[in-house]
Amino acid sequence: MNDKYVFDTSALLTYIKDEEGAETIADLLGKALDGEISIFISIITALEFFSASVKKEGWAVAKERLELMEDLPLTQEPLIPDLRKTIGEMQFKIIDEMTAVKRLPFADSCIAGLAKSKNAILVHKDRHFQSVEDEIEQLPLPYHEYV
Question: Do the domain assignments include residue 145?
Answer without folding.
Answer: no
